[in-house]
Amino acid sequence: MIRSNSDEQMPRVALFVTCMVDTLYPEVGLAAVDLLERHGAEVVFPEEQTCCGQPAFNAGYRVEARRMAVHFLDVFAPLVESGDVDAIVAPSGSCVAMVKRFYDVLFEGPNCINDQPRVARTREVTYELTQYLVDVLGVDDTAAQYNGTLTYHPCCHLLRELGIDKQPRRLLNAITGADLVELPAATECCGFGGLFALKNAEISTAMGQRKLDNIDQTGAHIVAVNDVSCMTHINGLLKRAGHPCRAAHVAQLLRPAEAGEPGARRT
User: Fold this and answer.
1) Would you give per-residue pLDDT tens digits along the chain (267 residues)?
2) Which CATH number fits the domain 141-258, given the four candidates 3.40.50.11810, 1.10.3720.10, 3.90.950.10, 3.40.190.10?
3) Residues 6+ apart with CB under 8 A from 46
4) Rounded to whole angstroms, how far apart are CA atoms 36 and 136?
């Protein structure tokens, strides 16, 4: 893949779609592509991509996690090193945090010395979707519309590991017709935490119930999130409780084509 002269002024990004989006919510990936293209970026999709290794890493399987991470680097690092792409963008704070924060842990030590330069180069150009839209493309308003009340749950990895908060809020605040209401105790975890929800189901559910009680106080019809894992967890709890509110990924809420009923398919 060689960039032509006509491509020089247009940023080109490689979409890292993530496992859960690819498997369960492809419409989120399509919404991310649409947003990036609408705002001046060319998007390429490396079909060889798989997992960043986060689930295995969180479970303590470092060897298996490193094997998947090496594959991630094999797919994405050459695109960065050759200049074929300017950035790697993912609609997931947790997966971006894995690449930017935890690959250093995964590849520490003399046995990984050959991969460390690739990790450093890849880390520098990896972005979460709203971060790239706001900080790199300079987007303040995506021309999205929604007549109703929204609230925002800042997912843990996005907020704590990456320090990203103002970017999704800025874009959500710009949605025409939407009333964005602050979520009480917004920074508290929803209780998912990947394997935490499986190994500590009772605690996870209790944390999720606290989140639902706070959502209920907002009167929101939609809870915006940046990770489909948290979205899945919150929606499961909402549905079992018979609550009319639903969680939706920000990519779908910000997409003009979704105006009117953003997140309506997330049931």
Assistant:
1) 445 444 557 999 999 999 999 999 999 999 999 999 999 999 999 999 999 999 999 999 999 999 999 999 999 999 999 999 999 999 999 999 999 999 999 999 999 999 999 999 999 999 999 999 999 999 999 999 999 999 999 999 999 999 999 999 999 999 999 999 999 999 999 887 766 666 777 887 888 899 999 999 999 999 999 999 999 999 999 999 999 999 999 999 999 844 344 443 332
2) 3.40.50.11810
3) 14, 75, 76, 79
4) 11
- Give the 3-state DSSP-derived string for 52-119, with helices as H, strands as E and coil as C: CCHHHHHCCCHHHHHHHHHHHHHHHHHHHHCCCCCEEEECCHHHHHHHHHHHHHHCCCHHHCCCHHHH
Alpha helices in 158-227 (DSSP H): 166-173, 196-199, 201-218
Residues paired with 223 in a beta bridge: 151, 247
Q: Give backbone dihedrals phi and psi of 205, rounded to 5 degrees, phi first.
A: -65, -40
CATH match of 7-135 with 3.40.720: no
Q: Is the separation of the CB atoms in 129 and 90 below 8 Å?
A: yes
Residues forming beta bridges with residue 178, ordered by sequence position = 148
191 three-state secondary structure: coil
pTM: predicted TM-score of the whole model, two decimal places: 0.91
**Domain map of the chain by residue range?**
7-135, 141-258
- Please state whether 158 falls in left (phi above 0), alpha (psi between -120 and 50) or beta: alpha
The two domains 7-135 and 141-258 share their CATH topology (first three levels equal): yes
